[in-house]
Amino acid sequence: MSPIHRELADALRTRLEVIADREAYASDPAAHFDRLKNASEEIVRLQAALPAPVDPQLAHYLSRCSYDKALAHLEQS
Fold first, then answer.
1. What pTM, to 2 d.p., does this model score?
2. How far is it, in rounded angstroms, from Cα 39 to Cα 23?
């Protein structure tokens, strides 16, 4: 896996961790939303930085925000 793909996989994992953090959501929904927004923006930034040609399946998952599938795809590569 290339460095940019590793970064993208890490960003996807981070987003999943934020989503799973129900305690943070319950204690401070606004801060939780900000963390989720930042994680999502990082994914978009890394998606734009992927070198061409981008794997068509990965591009499909990312364009549809199917981030679980995108992460699984990266982990299989």
1. 0.92
2. 18
